[in-house]
Amino acid sequence: MILDSIENLSRYTALQPLFEKVVQFLKLNDINTLSFGKHIIDGENIYLNIVEAAGRDVEDAAIEIHKEYIDIQLPLSKKETFGYNSLSNLKILSKEYDNKNDIAFYKDMCSSFLDVEPGQFIVFFPKDGHMPCIYKGNAKKAIFKVKFQHY
């Protein structure tokens, strides 16, 4: 997991080469003005979802994990709190892995919580269990899905 300011995203391109395409996309596009929905950047390797998501209380949320994609999440309209716990610590599976949607859910507790402000990003790699959308009301956010490249 990584939490940093959006202007520092380019510092992390050595971790995953496809991050460079996300950096270039952000230089050429104002994500605050993009329409809601899916925006293809590099076929199924990288795409962006602009969503307005309903907030949740921690008690009503679940930890999610992905196996095929890295999430780069950017709150756009307000601060978002994320819960975190490593997949190795998760034991209470609440929804089996869905291969089509690349997601499984767990009901374990988070080991930590992080606040992410507009202008920041948070990256969750496979094996990073995360609980998004902890806030009141609705919020606009951007979620880059980057195909995980195994080395």
As a whole number of angstroms, the C-alpha radius of gyration is 15 Å
Could you name the ranges where pLDDT drops below 50 across 5 or more consecutive residues?
A: none
Mean pLDDT: 96
Class inferred from helices and paired strands: mainly beta
User: Largest sheet at a glance?
Assistant: 6 strands, antiparallel
Distance from N terminus to C terminus (CA atoms, Å) equals 18 Å
Précis, in short:
This protein has 151 residues and is mainly β. Helices cover 7% and strands 48% of the residues. A hairpin with a 4-residue loop joins strand 7 (93-98) and strand 8.
Describe the 3D structure:
- Strand 2 and strand 3 form a beta hairpin.
- The protein is 7% helix and 48% strand.
- The strands form 3 sheets. Strands 1-10-5-12-3-2 form a 6-stranded antiparallel sheet. A 3-stranded antiparallel sheet has the order 4-8-7, with no helix packed on it. A 3-stranded antiparallel sheet has the order 9-6-11, with no helix packed on it.
- The protein is mostly beta strands.
- The two termini are 18 Å apart.
- It is globular.
- It has one helix at residues 19-28; strands at 2-5, 37-42, 46-54, 63-65, 69-75, 80-86, 93-98, 103-106, 112-116, 120-124, 128-134, 138-147.
